[in-house]
Amino acid sequence: MVSYLDIDKELEPYGLCLRGGFVENSTYLLVGNVGSKMWKQFGREHEDWIEPNPMDNWTRKSMDALAQKIGATVIYPFDGPNYAPFQFWAEKADCVFPSPIGPLIHPKYGLWHAYRAVFLFDQAVEDVPDIPDEASPCERCFTKPCLSSCPVEAFSQDKPFKFQKCIDFLNKNLEGSCMKYGCLARQACPVGKQYAYEREHAFFHLERFRRLAPK
Where is the 4Fe-4S ferredoxin-type domain (predicted)? Predict the structure, then answer.
């Protein structure tokens, strides 16, 4: 029988880890990153930087090979336009909650984590952990600094993310704090500060968000 712990060890060389799982006809195991461990493994080969989606390409190449090795089917969040419901799956598998600014928040890792793939198994998997019984850290956060730190007020508690305001600001401030340090609203969250993405890692994601945004 396949073991959750064994698969988790197979992911270590990629800087990735299992982020929980659940059973629904098949066994679903979520693969993701915490902090910048993955960033330190990504980009070691020239082909890892093929545009326009180098990290997605690297993820596919790496996880396709591992899925074949462990006998799993693999699904990616960037395969579309019929995108898989990764946020829904994450809330079924991991201790995460919607945050005021959109990304799922984890009580330990804060906003500094992501889901890169799902492994599907037709068989049972040993040692899949239960989800800890914890509340969202946002329930204890009364000041909500994430909502007041964006320089163009792109986030609010009860309104959709003002996507175009964010993009316009980034395009006009390529040397500004957002591009240097990453999203300031995300940086303002007090949860999981020790897992915050390294500067180059944060810049990579924000730069691709800016460049690939619909014109």
Answer: 127-160
C-alpha distance from residue 28 to each of 17, 22, 86, 98 (Å): 14, 5, 11, 21
What residues does each domain of the chain span?
Answer: 2-136, 138-212
| Greatest Cα-to-Cα distance within the chain, rounded to the nearest angstrom | 54
φ and ψ of 148, to 5 deg? -115, 5
> pLDDT in tens for each of the 215 residues of the chain?
899 999 999 999 999 999 999 999 999 999 999 999 999 999 877 777 877 889 999 999 999 999 999 999 999 999 989 999 999 999 999 999 999 999 999 999 999 999 999 999 999 999 999 999 999 999 999 999 999 999 999 999 889 999 999 999 999 999 999 998 999 999 999 999 999 999 999 999 999 999 887 76
